[in-house]
Specification:
Elements lengths: L13 E6 L10 H18 L1 E8 L3 E8 L4 H21 L11 E4 L2 H12 L1 H4 L14 H6 L15 H9 L4 H13 L6 H11 L20
Antiparallel strand pairs: 1-3, 1-4, 2-3
Length: 224
């Protein structure tokens, strides 16, 4: 769980992820995935959350989303996961928690957006499920590569060109890049440069950068 209050940057893209409790399966059939996407889209429209990318794996989800207000993200994901949990519990005759804790999220600077999109859409490739991201049905990759209509995705002006995007997805992802995205997911800290972080600190009145270790400066009387 993030060590401080969730960081929400209105009208900025965020990477969102959550997995099943104890890494358990959360999607047992294509029908389950359809139900989840339907709930997600309905609540996103209600609370003001736009989706630019997504991927549904068997025991976790990844989203790239843009909140229209500070509560858009939490309300959409919370209500979607609450209702989907009820659906699965009834379907499987279960009781208890389906999801692991609350969801993880962090804001993205535009300069890092495309790498985050690639990370999300390449999940099935890294897992060995498909050879090409666009072959996986339950992600935004087919829409971005083939121009297929996807009811969850918002017209966003990303400037993705089909041929170029397919080639970009096939480029080798740097291990450091993958580790950085995963680390940010756990801490909730924004992914971006110094100017981006400083802008968020000012607008949100939060301290988001790690302090350098060392003793505090003392005043003239030797008091810290």
């Amino acid at each position: 769980m993030p060590p401080f209050k969730r960081i929400v940057a209105v009208n900025r893209p965020h990477h969102i992820t959550n997995r099943g409790n104890r890494r358990q399966t959360i999607f047992f059939s294509d029908e389950d995935r359809k139900v989840y996407l339907g709930l997600l889209g309905w609540h996103a429209d209600k609370y003001g959350l736009k989706f630019w990318a997504y991927c549904l794996m068997h025991n976790h989800i990844h989203l790239i989303a843009v909140p229209e207000n500070p509560e858009s993200m939490s309300l959409t994901i919370r209500e979607t996961h609450r209702k989907y949990s009820s659906y699965i519990n009834i379907l499987m005759n279960w009781k208890g928690t389906l999801w692991q804790r609350r969801f993880y999220s962090f804001p993205l600077e535009d300069a890092h957006l495309y790498r985050a999109l690639r990370y999300v859409e390449n999940n099935p490739v890294r897992a060995g499920i498909v050879k090409k991201a666009e072959e996986y049905r339950w992600s935004s990759a087919p829409a971005h590569v083939f121009g297929r209509r996807d009811g969850l995705l918002s017209p966003n002006g990303l400037g993705i060109k089909r041929n170029n995007w397919s080639a970009y997805l096939r480029e080798q992802e740097e291990e450091a890049e993958i580790k950085d995205i995963r680390a940010r997911s756990l801490t909730g800290r924004p992914l971006g440069g110094d100017e981006f972080i400083a802008e968020l600190e000012q607008s949100l009145d939060l301290e988001l950068r790690h302090k350098k270790p060392g003793r505090k400066k003392s005043d003239a009387n030797g008091k810290p």
